[in-house]
Design a protein that fits this description.
CATH superfamily of the domain at 250-446: SGNH hydrolase
Number of helices: 8
Number of strands: 20
Radius of gyration: 22 Å
Structural class: alpha+beta
CATH topology of the domain at 250-446: Rossmann fold
Largest sheet: 5 strands, parallel
Distance between the termini: 41 Å
Helix content: 10-25%
CATH class of the domain at 250-446: Alpha Beta
Shape: globular
Strand order of the largest sheet: 17-16-18-19-20
Oligomer: single chain
Length: 447
C-alpha cells in the first residue's frame, strides 16, 4: 500500500520434536539441522504498481514478434549441482516456511523452494510458520517434486480467477543459482513487454508487479527465466500452462476499483497472484479486479478514464481511502475525490457502489517497523470518509466488521496491521456478495 519496501524484524525459528518425511511420505527420526538462512523478508504487499522496488526495464515490442531488441543469449549455462524443487499449497496466515532437508534448515517466503542437495533422495519436511515464529502446520504435503528442474515453476493462479486482474502480478519459485530474472508478457503470440528484476542480495525475489494495465482484448501468457550476474540464462523459459495464461475481454458487468485491499495479497509474503487473499475470491459472482497497490483516492481518480471506461461496467465497486489517511491526507480531500469519482461514474452510465475503507492497526505497524506510523488523527479522517460513504445511494459497510473496540483493525485479521488477510478478505467478499445478491434479485423482480 505504501511506496516504501523496508524489512521487517527477524522471526524466531523453533525446532523441537520434529520428524522428517522421505519422498515416499514415511516419517523418519529427526536428524541434526543447522540454521543457514536468517534472512529478513520484505513486505510483498507494499509494492506500488508505478514504482515497485525493482530495477526493471520495460520494452514495448508493438511491431516485433520474435526479434526483440536487447536480446539475451539463448544458450543456457548448465549447472553440475543437484537441485531438488519442492512445491506445496499456500497455508493461510503463514508468513514463511521452514524446510528441513539434507541436514540443513532453509527458509522460503513463497510456497516452493529449490535446494541444492547432496542427495536427491534426502529426507525433508516443510512446516508453515506464523509471524511470531510459531508453527501453524507441520509436514505440509508436497504438491510437486522435481529433480534438477530446467525451468522455473510459476505460481500464479490465473486459472482460478474469473477474470484476470488489470494489473497482473507475476510470481514464481525462486531458481537456485539465479542472480535475477527476466519476465516477458506475450499477447496472441507476440512479446509485448519485458522486465528484468534487480539482483536481490536477500534472495527474496519471487514476484513482479506489472506497472502497466493490461487492457486490450486477447489471449495472454507470461513466462520467466533465471539469469546470472552476466545476464546469461541459467534456466530455460518457464512452461506455458493454464496457471500463467489468461484472456482479457471487454464485456464485464461488475468491476472492483481500489488500492491493495482490492488488488489482493496478504500475510506479508503472498502477492495478489494467488486467490486466498483476494476478496473477489469470496464472492460467487464474477468481478473484474481493477485494483492497483499503493493508490490514493487522487490516483484512482487519475486513472479512472484509462482503466475503468474500457470495460464499461454496469456496477463499479469503489474501495479507497486507507492510503489517504495513512499519508496524512485530510478526510475532506479524500471525500472530494470520491465525489468526483461518483459523478464520473454517473456521467458514463456506471452505477458506483462505495465500500467503506478498512481500518489499520498502529500497534502492529509499530511492532513490525517496516512502514511509517500513521498520523495520530487517522481515525478522524477515516470517520469522515466512512460517514460520506454511508450517506450514498449505494454502499457496503465493512469497516465495522473489521474494527476492534479501540477503532483499529482487529489484530487477528491482519499480520502486518495494514492488509486484511484471508478471514478479513472473506468478510469483504461476502458483504459484496450479499449486496449483489439483493441487487440481482431486485432486478429479476422488477423485470
Amino acid at each position: 500500500m505504501l511506496k516504501v519496501v523496508p524489512m521487517i524484524l527477524a522471526i524466531a525459528l523453533c525446532f523441537s520434536n520434529l520428524g522428517f518425511i522421505d519422498l515416499g511420505g514415511i516419517t523418519r527420526d529427526k536428524i541434526p539441522v543447522k540454521i543457514t538462512d536468517n534472512r529478513l523478508p520484505r513486505n510483498h504487499l507494499t509494492q506500488d504498481a508505478k514504482a515497485a522496488p525493482l530495477n526493471e526495464q520495460l520494452i514495448n515490442f508493438e511491431d516485433v514478434a520474435d526479434t526483440p531488441t536487447q536480446a539475451v543469449s539463448e544458450e543456457v549455462i548448465q549447472s553440475d549441482r543437484q537441485i531438488l524443487r519442492l512445491h506445496w499449497d499456500i497455508i493461510p496466515n503463514a508468513v514463511k516456511y521452514e524446510i528441513f532437508i539434507d541436514g540443513m534448515t532453509r527458509v522460503s517466503y513463497t510456497n516452493g523452494i529449490e535446494v541444492i542437495v547432496s542427495d536427491l533422495h534426502a529426507p525433508f519436511q516443510v512446516n508453515a510458520i506464523a509471524l511470531d515464529g510459531s508453527t501453524i502446520e507441520t509436514a505440509i504435503p508436497i504438491r510437486d517434486l522435481d529433480a534438477n528442474p530446467t525451468a522455473p515453476r510459476t505460481t500464479t493462479e490465473f486459472d482460478k480467477m474469473n477474470y484476470p486482474p488489470i494489473y497482473p502480478v507475476y510470481s514464481w519459485i525462486p531458481t537456485a543459482g539465479a542472480d535475477h530474472y527476466e519476465v516477458e508478457l506475450i499477447k496472441d503470440g507476440k512479446i509485448i513487454r519485458r522486465y528484468f528484476t534487480q539482483a536481490n542480495p536477500d534472495d527474496d525475489d519471487f514476484d513482479l508487479y506489472d506497472k502497466q494495465p493490461v487492457l486490450d482484448e486477447g489471449i495472454y501468457f507470461w513466462r520467466v527465466r533465471g539469469l546470472n550476474q552476466d545476464n546469461q540464462p541459467v534456466t530455460q523459459w518457464s512452461e506455458r500452462d493454464n496457471t500463467n495464461s489468461f484472456e482479457v475481454k471487454r464485456q464485464v458487468r461488475f468491476c472492483a476499483f481500489g488500492d491493495s485491499i482490492t488488488h489482493g495479497g496478504g500475510s506479508i509474503s503472498v502477492p495478489p497472484s494467488t486467490i486466498v487473499y483476494n476478496w473477489e475470491t469470496y464472492c460467487a459472482i464474477p468481478i473484474k479486479n481493477l485494483g492497483r497497490s499503493g493508490d490514493t483516492t487522487a490516483e484512482l481518480l487519475d486513472r479512472f478514464d484509462n482503466d475503468v471506461l474500457p470495460f464499461r461496467p454496469e456496477i463499479l465497486f469503489i474501495m479507497a481511502g486507507v492510503n489517504d489517511y495513512r499519508a496524512n491526507i485530510p478526510g475532506w480531500q479524500s471525500v472530494q475525490n470520491l465525489e468526483i469519482l461518483r459523478d464520473k461514474c454517473y456521467f458514463n452510465g456506471i452505477k458506483p457502489v462505495f465500500i467503506t475503507p478498512t481500518p489499520i492497526n498502529p500497534a502492529q505497524i509499530q511492532k513490525l517497523g517496516f512502514v511509517e506510523m500513521p498520523p495520530s488523527d487517522w481515525q478522524e479522517n477515516q470517520r469522515l470518509i466512512c460517514e460520506w460513504i454511508r450517506g450514498q445511494e449505494n454502499f457496503i459497510d465493512v469497516n465495522d466488521k473489521l474494527t476492534d473496540a479501540d477503532g483499529n483493525l482487529t489484530d487477528t485479521l491482519s499480520v502486518d496491521g495494514l492488509h486484511p488477510d484471508a478471514d478479513g478478505k472473506k468478510i469483504i467478499g461476502e458483504a459484496v456478495a450479499a449486496w449483489l445478491d439483493k441487487y440481482l434479485n431486485l432486478g429479476a423482480v422488477n423485470s
